[in-house]
Amino acid sequence: MNKRKKIVVCLILGIILVCNICGCQSNKEEKNSILRVGIVTYTQDDPFINALKEQLKGNLKTMETKDMKIMISERNGDNDQRDQNEAVEEMIDAGCDIMCINLVDRTEPSKIIKMARQNNIPVIFFNREPVKEDLKQWDKLYYVGCNAEQSGKMQGQIAAKYIKKNKKVILIMLGSMGFGRIDEILNGLLEEKDVKIIVVCGSNKELYNNLLKINNDKLIVLGFVNNINDLIYSSDIVLSKPGGISSTEVTVMRKPLIHIFPIPGIETYNTLFFKDRDMSLKCDTKEEIIINTTKLLNDTSLQENMIRNQEKYINRNSAEDLVKLVLEKYK
Fold first, then answer.
1. Non-local CB neighbours of 63 within 8 Å, separated by 6+ positions
2. What's the pTM?
3. How confident is the model over 119-147, as a mean pLDDT?
């Protein structure tokens, strides 16, 4: 049994257990009772969570009997905890008997817990585990899922399997704010044969919505994501804004890198640092982005040389080595 099925099974058992303990079916004295289940996910753009949700809904429907109907309502938080809080409040007002919630921010469940407690509605959090102290706030709070590291690896494996069927994967990272007019060069990139292009738009909803209008099965458009390391792992080459952390993440994972859309200042220096050591390609114009992407995607010698230099200059174990150095100097 894969982990997605395990989580669904545990959710189903959790709903049954919670309802037995808390008596959360509405109109219990009526012959035909209705159980109203609310499902709120953190986003609508996560294939793993969407598959889990659909499997949960299907399994819940099979549990219906002539004496009990199950009504399922679903919403998503659009990657914003405040939006998710509002969605939960609307579901509570609509009369949900039990809530299944995949948090946007596992450290910020307090408002949801307060609303649920005030209305005596049990909550089963799934896949993203709240902080233990939060789960202890009330005896009708539960968690179902695997640990974060396992979930991250699993989602990366699913993404890799889905998008790497005889295709090369180009990952485009535009920073947390989705900076850069990538929409103006996508048509040129999409002309490349046998590719999948993943664009991470960050919090730029306007760009995200514009790219969704492009009708091309080579293109995968994502908003703000929490598993960028899995996407980097799944890619063949990466186009990225030259932020210091994002550039280091890519090179630590030994991926051919092209720097795009630098903000003048520190990102200009970052670009030169990596380019001068042959760890990345530098692009100053839209035309250069298209030309260099095609070149790097098809030139294995260039890719291998870039990775060799990344290994030379970027230490994967730098954090561990730094701790060792401090301990040796000051023990």
1. 12, 70
2. 0.56
3. 86
